[in-house]
Amino acid sequence: MANANKQAAKLASKKAKRKAKPFKKSSDSLDPPFYGDRSFAEAATFKRDAMISREVVYAAAEGDVGRVWEGLKVNSIRLHNNFNI
After folding, report:
1. Among 23, 27, 64, 76, which residue's Cβ finds the most Cβ atoms within 10 Å?
2. Range with the poorest average pLDDT among 3-12, 22-31, 33-42
3. The whole model's pTM is what?
4. Is 24 part of a structural domain of the chain?
């Protein structure tokens, strides 16, 4: 974890040193830039989504409507809170 923070700080300092061309900032890009491991983040998100969907499928197969509802609720809340889908 410490190595990832060092790499992120190093990358941020390199980007700050470079002179960037001015560009228009769109109103929908309010998130700060991501300096971490993008593929790891996407893999973690995929695993979380797979676990939730598997839980919903198992609950539906067992006839447990409450667990299905909870899984769908968690998934819909996650989708509504994430604007970069």
Report:
1. 64
2. 22-31
3. 0.52
4. no
